[in-house]
Amino acid sequence: MNEPHRRGRSRRFRETLPSEYPVLIALSAAGVVLGIAREALLILFFGFSETTDTIHLYLLITYSLGLLTDPVRLAGLNLFQTLERRDVAVAAALIIVPFGIAVALATVLLVERDLRIPLLIGITTTGILMQLNHLTMAHKQRGGAVVPTQVVTVLPNVILVPGIIAVGLAGLVDPVAWVLACFFVVPVLQYVLLARIEAPQPEIHGRPPSLTGRLRLMGKHSVTAVGRQGFEIVTRTAMISLGEGFLTAFSLATRVYVSLKFVLIDTFIGARIRRWSTTATRVRVPRAFRVALHPLSIVGLTAAGFVVALGFATPGTRWAFMLVYALFLGLGFPYDAGARILYFESNARMVPERLIVWIAVLEVLFAALAFAITRVSLAHVALALLAWYVVKSALQCGMIARVVVAGPAPGGKAGVREPRPQGVRGADESAGEA
């Protein structure tokens, strides 16, 4: 490739990035660093003690509710096309509140500790409000208020880090209650700040779905969270059985991977939601990425990963495991990132109902496959990681490209409802077969 052509491609790539992207990246990275500092401060002040364990036990409720973050955002992007935010928030609350109560009750029943009811109610309410705030954040991003919304997104750790320091240095009698009180403040302050952000919304168009239709759509998105949580439980249980230190190594590598996705991918998504929501054109896949989606590319990567996974049939040291896991994360990252961006883009532009179902089905099927692999032989746990991070991500990315990006063929039914261009009112349902 000659130099002028290379420079031209580089310039076009930079032009596709939002102008606010460097600022957003800095904010996201700061949030990740503060999040790691928060965990380190808990250990620094309270050690590996019953106090720290109890704090994390209560926070398990907010972590479990966090599984609904993506489903809430995606369903919100679908429903904002035809409904006001308050109408979407009512439907979201009817999903989030029962789920939060169920998680709190399960925690009480399954954990053999005396948990205080006021703290349980407080932390459950905190988790519920955080999820409703995520819906509002998606609404503000859709209106173009990207940087202010990103500031509010990273706000929790800005509050929690000094709060934990203050509690630790004060030597209070009941540190658990005081640390949780810091968490209680976060969603309230987020709500107040979000209410002050001005974000003019794109025009609402089309016939709004009934309350039952809204709940059904949110339920479809929520099934993906079931599959992901199932995979987490299966793999973390397997790591414990592999030997001492494997779970810690796996958790640390996963945390780095998730943080990288948050900084690079979710930041890009947040910056692009406004643009995606105001254009009715089809989603497009970059030309270079189509090579990676070619069946031969996917089969080749899977075969290479399979050979490596079989080589790990007799688990060695934690370092060997980390290398294998890092390899699979690296192979799967382009597919994972591509699938995530294209999926959010398609949901911001239209309501791809059949695609939502198939993505959820793949999540559940591959979680079940991971369970089957680890039950047959723990020595082949690497195959479960290969299947989840490489094969599943590649299939999902290819599926989005075929069903949504390629567009419906004339004369069939794609199950994709596409919004009209700005300034055109009325319901609009695209027909066609993908």
Quaternary structure of the protein: single chain
Number of domains: 2
Strand and helix order: HHHHHHHHHHHHHHEHHE
- Strands in their spatial order, largest beta sheet: 1-2
Produce a short descriptive summary.
This protein is mainly alpha-helical.
Protein described:
- With 434 residues, the chain is mainly α.
- The protein folds into two domains: 21-201, no CATH class; 210-427, no CATH class.
- It is 76% helix and 1% strand.
- The radius of gyration is 22 Å and the shape is globular.
- The two termini are 35 Å apart.
Topology, please?
Layout: H1 3-16, H2 21-46, H3 50-65, H4 69-79, H5 85-110, H6 117-142, H7 146-153, H8 155-170, H9 175-195, H10 211-242, H11 246-277, H12 287-292, H13 295-311, H14 318-349, E1 351-352, H15 353-376, H16 381-405, E2 416-417
Antiparallel strand pairs: 1-2
Helix pairs in contact: 2-7, 2-8, 2-11, 3-5, 3-6, 3-9, 4-6, 4-10, 4-14, 5-6, 5-10, 6-7, 6-9, 8-9, 10-11, 10-15, 11-14, 13-14, 13-16, 14-16, 15-16
